[in-house]
Amino acid sequence: MAFGPRRGLLVNRRAFAIGDLFLGEEAGAWYDPSDLSTLFQDAAGTTPVTTDSDPVGLMRDISGNGNDLTQATAGKRPLYKTSGGLHWLEFDGSDDFLRATFTIAQPWERVAAFRQNSWTSGRRIFSGGDANNGILYQSPTTPTLTLYSGAGGPTLATLAVGADGVVTERHSGATSRVALNNGSYATGNAGTSAAGGITIGANYDDGNAGAMRLYGLIIREGTMGERQMSVVRNHLAAKSGVSL
């Protein structure tokens, strides 16, 4: 979904803000581990996260769409971590994941600040909410990441294990693309199958868990212009301590 005339006029009157991405009620979500008001230790949202290494069973979506991430099983919850002024969720690569199911149509984009803590072929960084699509996964050789929404590709080979980065994905059939930080896009056909939301840290069926840390993520139906993308990338880079 493109920016409509009303939204374009509104944004031109002031500096663009991240929340403007969802003013037209675009499908998607925005997650920020540095906002403790959005984090809870249980899936019901009764016990707030307050301290380093608290488990996270619920992460509120701050886009206004209500696509909250949850994990009902205590032993599969990632940990909230904080150090040096940074905040992130730590996924153990064994069974940790968070999931939100919602409808999102191609083309859609996902911009996330994260770190691969280890690399094993087939492990997921992100996947769909209820389908084996909308995937960013570790394949074919370390430290490569590949998009998949019914077809394998394109690939990103520049985010080293143990390094933080901002990864931009567009899932849009034959015009899909992926880039690290402000680097050039790798392009290819990722397929046209629906994602059904998002799973962070594992596949939609709970398997292939990836060891990672997440500093922040925005997923949105439609495509961003260069100005909007620059603001989003710089916002997420600041969350991870990355300099673009």
How does this model look, in words?
- The chain is mainly beta and 244 residues long.
- Helices cover 9% and strands 33% of the residues.
- The chain is built from 2 helices and 17 strands.
- The chain has helices at 5-12, 226-240; strands at residues 28-31, 39-40, 58-59, 69-70, 79-83, 86-92, 98-100, 108-116, 124-127, 135-138, 145-148, 152-156, 164-171, 176-180, 186-188, 198-200, 211-221.
- Strands 1, 5, 6, 8, 13, 14, 15 and 17 form an 8-stranded antiparallel beta sheet that branches. Strands 7-16-9-10-11-12 form a 6-stranded antiparallel beta sheet, with no helix packed on it.
- The protein starts with a helix and ends with a helix.
Quickly describe the structure.
The protein is mainly beta and 244 residues long. It has two helices and 17 strands. A hairpin with a 5-residue loop joins strand 14 (176-180) and strand 15 (186-188).
SS field, number of helical segments: 2
Q: Which percent range describes the beta-strand content?
A: 25-35%
What composes the largest sheet? Answer: 8 strands, antiparallel
- Return the structural class: mainly beta
The level of helicity is under 10%
Cα separation of the termini? 27 Å
Envelope shape: globular
Radius of gyration over alpha carbons? Answer: 16 Å
Average pLDDT score: 94
Parts with pLDDT < 50 across at least 5 consecutive residues: 1-11
